[in-house]
Amino acid sequence: MLRISPILSTPPLGPSARRFANGAILVESPLSPPAMLTMIQGIENRLGRRRYRRWGARSVDIDIILWSGGPWRSRTLTIPHAAYRTRAFVLTPLLAVAPDWRDPHLAMTVRHLHARLQKAAPKS
User: Fold this and answer.
1) How far apart are CA 57 and CA 36, in angstroms?
2) How far is CA 52 from CA 20, 65, 68, in A?
3) Distance between the two ends of the chain, CA-based, in angstroms?
4) For the chain, which terminus, N or C, has the lower number of CB atoms within 10 Å?
5) Partners of 21 in the beta sheet?
6) pLDDT digit string (tens) for 43-99?
7) Is the peptide bond before 11 cis (omega within 30 degrees of 0)?
8) Pick from 90, 87, 109, 98: which is nearest to 23 by CA?
């Protein structure tokens, strides 16, 4: 593991009623995206994840947000993660581990994407 973010407590996205703990890690690995996904799903299973329904309650959810090889798309995996640019609970921890990482589609850094999302957020 190269870097780990602080843990962020966030409200749920979807029908869950509980809060979530979100974080990000930066790792270096020789695994391809499909092999990394298989490894991650094994970790989730060992931690008690059961896949019943989309947006359902889950004990853990590990996503691959970005990788150094640029975009990746298959039937089971899309990198970058499809919605990461619009989710503060993803961008905030990601900012702590990879602020200068560039989105392969927009060529914007994580720092810029985070600032743009903060600027667009409604003020309370």
Assistant:
1) 23
2) 18, 22, 31
3) 37
4) C
5) 9
6) 988 988 776 655 555 668 889 999 999 999 999 899 998 899 999 999 999 999 999
7) no
8) 90
- Name the CA radius of gyration of the chain, rounded: 15
What is the DSSP pairing of strand 3-4 with strand 25-26? antiparallel
∠ Cα 70 75 81 (to 5°): 45
How many residues comprise the chain? 124
Q: Which residue has the tokens 């309370």?
A: 124
Active site residues: 49, 58, 61, 63
pLDDT score at 4:
95
Alpha carbon of 64 to those of 25, 33, 119, 121: distances in Å? 10, 8, 25, 24
Q: Which domains does the chain have, with CATH numbers?
A: 3-120 (3.30.70.560)
CA distance 33 to 46: 20
